[in-house]
User: Fold this.
Amino acid sequence: MTTEQSPTVRKLRLGIELRRLRLRSGRTMVEAADHVARTDSSISRMETGQVAVSRRVLDKLCDLYQTGPEEREALLILAGEARQRGWWHVYGDAIPPGFDVRLGLEAEASCLWIYEPAVVPGLLQTEDYARAMMQAEPLPPSDDLVKARISVGMHRQRRLTGDHAPALAVVLHEAVLHHEVGGRAAMAHQLRRLARPAGPGSPDLRVLPFSAGAHPAMHVGGFTLMSVPLAGAETYDTAYVEYRTGSLHLDKPADVDDHKRVFEHLRARAMSPEESRQLIMRLAEAMSG
Assistant:
């Protein structure tokens, strides 16, 4: 399976190139903003990949930065791809506010590190588990919305198979394994899915046992670290944190490094993958009895 192009990532790549060309030309953000009749904060948002860049603005920036014809053509192609819609846009309201950014980064991430203290991560959920989680909401979504969100989840999981699958490392707190989401039969099926033998798309999955005691993630809950290849050896690294009514993308190096240290600490204190698999299978068998 080939990697799907993400307009989110194309915006980031275009922004990096625009910043490189501006610095090479010796122009300031204020000069660039004046040239295209925008504010310097608008130029900043373009260079950080937060907004798309129109053909007119891109042409004027290329004139200012004195880019060559080949560079200009490459930027125009990149800008066109950045203005396209990702696969998730067809699902409309099924995508929670802000979650489209995660989907855009996840679509091309080369590495994902996930810590979850209470639920099975969406990338590893069975349909029954996902449905039960949605039905547990105080105001459960409609049947159509449930079906759409399950389709989104299954689409996400297809990225885990094939030659371009990201490296996936997951630490689950042991509590995740004991919540009987959807009933004992559905949870047993979910546990067996987690414990499947290693192969394409299988994560490095480890269980943080109750006996691990206090740890540095107890005050922050779950999070996902993503590393997305950009130009050359450069990557865009972010820590994604969900809360009940939204999410945060923390991309300052200090924030990302802090979450990396926490994840490494948790993984070091967790059971080995084989020990984790054995525990999960024992629980699955107990729930199947």
Q: What stands out?
A: The mean pLDDT is 92. Residues 210 and 231 are 42 Å apart (CA to CA). The first strand starts at residue 111 and ends at 116.
